[in-house]
Amino acid sequence: MRIRATVAVVSGALALSAFAVPAAQADGSASNADIAKIAKAADSGRTTFDAAAGEPYALDATFSNVKINKGKAIAVGTTKVVKAPVTFTLTHGADVDYTAEDFFAFVELYRGASFEDADWAWDTDPAVCTAVTDTTASCTTTLELDPIALLNEDAGSWKVAAFAVAFNGENLEDPDLSKVGVAVQDPAAASVKLQRYSKLTVNASPEPVKKGKTITVTGKLTRANWDTGKYAGYTNQSVKLQYKKKGASSYSDVKTVKSGSGGALKTTVKATADGYFRYVFAGTSTTPAVKAKGDFVDVK
Fold it and tell me: Rounded to whole angstroms, how far apart are CA atoms 263 and 171?
């Protein structure tokens, strides 16, 4: 779920009222956002909790091998919610019961100076962890990205943090926070890229064509516009035209074309033999690579 910055700064100190206790949901559990608030506040190093509520202790837990989407960038279109797998290793002390119902471990993607001061953040679902050794567990969860909550400015690199909160049997509606453990690792991994899903088309004509005559190859490069919820042309981008002779096993480069207005592509080549033409875009930091499906031309 995407959340606004969950830490508010007031006169150089954190607004403590937001972190006194987690909000209970209808089923009596704490909300993901409020668990994150406790972790952020405890990690800030600037916070003194409400004395009546207590202050969380440092949970003996660390995170490693954090992978978002198997280490690959996440491409998001305009309508479909994208679910990316998340895995990490939890290393813990003997007194940490990660199997307890009130133990929560998350990974968060965020933009901002640090985990506790994130401008924008996406939290995963709570992770499910399975024992590997007496002190380590393999954890899995899912990150869900809904394009309706994304803006074009969100494309690019996001930082990654991991955190865990152990309530240790405390009443979630009114816990003694001094008995609640918090562990935060920021950053837990280098970064992950969110990209605007791209599309690429090609059309070679005329078909059929006489050998030696001119073939015009057109196409269009577009990518998701998260501001409008539609696809829009990606202009001024270098796109390769490739050709594969009928019966051949691979394509070879023919020339490079720049995308014009609306992402339009157009160039000409001489007809030599039956074969396939396609456009190939190498991608950018905000847009994934894409290949058009080859278009066959019958040369007489």
Answer: 57
**Burial annotation 193-232 (CB, 10 A radius, 16+ → b, else e):** bbbbbbbbbbbbeeeebeeeeebebbbbbbbbbbeeeebb
Nearest-angstrom CA–CA distance, 40 and 6: 8
CB atoms within 10 A of CB 281: 25
Please give the Cα distance from 101 to 28 (Å, whole number): 12
Q: What is the mean pLDDT of the chain?
A: 88
Contact residues for 221 (Cβ-Cβ < 8 A; gap 6+)? 198, 199, 200, 233, 234, 237, 239, 259, 263, 265, 279, 281, 290
Strand partners, 204: 217
Per-residue model confidence as pLDDT tens digits over 260-277? 999 999 999 999 999 999
Instruction: Report helix, strand or coil for 69.
Output: helix
To the question of domain 2-195 being in CATH 1.10.3470, the answer is: no
- 48 burial level (CB within 10 Å; 0-12, 13-18, 19+): exposed
B/e letters for 81-93, b = 16+ CB within 10 Å, e = fewer, are: ebebebbbbbebe
70-88: per-residue pLDDT in tens?
A: 999 999 999 999 999 999 9
What is the spatial distance between Cα 204 and Cα 214, in angstroms, rounded to a whole number? Answer: 10
- What CATH homologous superfamily does 198-297 map to? Immunoglobulins (2.60.40.10)
- Is there a contact between 208 and 300 (Cβ–Cβ < 8 Å)? yes
Q: What is the pLDDT of residue 15?
A: 27
